[in-house]
Amino acid sequence: MRIAFFVNSIEGEAAHYTTAALAVAAMARGHDVCYVTPGDFVLRPDDSLMVRATVLPSKKYRKTDAFDAALKSSEATIETLDTAEVDVIFLRNDPSLDADDRPWAAHIGAMFGRLACERGVLVVNDPAGLALAQNKLYFQGFPESVRPTTLISKSIEEIRAFIADNKKGAILKPLQGSGGKNVFKIASPDDANLNQIFEAVSGEGYLIAQSYLPEAKAGDVRFFMMNGKPLVRDGVYAAFRRVPAKGEVRSNMHAAGTAAEAVINDQILAIAEMVRPKLVEDGMFLVGLDIVGDKILEINVFTPGGLPDIAALHDIDFSQEVIVALENKVAIHKAYAGQLSNRAIATL
């Protein structure tokens, strides 16, 4: 099969990204791989949907370093493909990275992904589901029992009152954002930096204020779910603990966090079971939950990362499981010849 990975940009990709691991795993199983970016779609007058894809020659790469180098070299060529020639479009972009400098690009994946679905391409995660998740407001649709107490507002008075009600402090972050950018811990409503932080973060739009969870000092657990179920092989879960750098409140790997083994207990599995129904309903094939204690801090449905970190910790490449799951979906998709919706197949 041919898999097209949709990303923000070719130059922005890196060898340690989960997308690279998935691409290498796909090629190791004999599949063709190409990359597509927001500017690469073409809807022609005859209503055919084309992509100007970055295509790599069919070969097997032992390491993602070599794959990433080839992706950015003359080995990769631009080919115009009809989406009918593509079996899977895997949406792996981060909309928040384009929100400021290229706002037109932020939601292209979901927009053209829906058009590709209509033309018979399997698209994951389901683009209609992703359209519901364009910012962190999506998180509020999950059960209250798994979420920290949360306020969403652009009012400094509302935020100050919320912090006063949460004696352990609060975390402030933009409603639209990722990678730990502009995430701050506020200890009290009288914090001298609150006004300055509010001005900096509110310039990006609405703010989220969440009650601070003291357990977060030890980091959070990135826990992968696939097809609405925990991703697991031989009793090992696709999960790791993201340990914040000294003096940091953020555990994100982009913010100098480090990976450590995670203990997966009944509490974490119960949280996963609680969010399962909505993930399935929304067609969320591959998802990363960020868990602290008995709460989820975030649900990453666009570009969950960390599979290479898990492989380094446990010597298990879960990328293979992901590609095998896509193989099965493509077989079902072809067998039913359009009788099942993209959203249904995405989490079968």
TrEMBL record:
It catalyses: gamma-L-glutamyl-L-cysteine + glycine + ATP = glutathione + ADP + phosphate + H(+). The keyword Transmembrane helix does not apply. It is an enzyme of class 6 (ligase). GO terms for molecular function: glutathione synthase activity. Its cofactor is Mn(2+); Mg(2+). Its EC number is 6.3.2.3. Residues 136-327 form the ATP-grasp domain. Pathway: Sulfur metabolism; glutathione biosynthesis; glutathione from L-cysteine and L-glutamate: step 2/2. Keywords: ATP-binding, Glutathione biosynthesis, Ligase, Magnesium, Manganese, Metal-binding, Nucleotide-binding. PROSITE patterns: ATP_GRASP. Pfam families: GSH-S_ATP, GSH-S_N. Belongs to the prokaryotic GSH synthase family. This is Glutathione synthetase. It comes from Pararhizobium capsulatum DSM 1112. The gene is gshB.
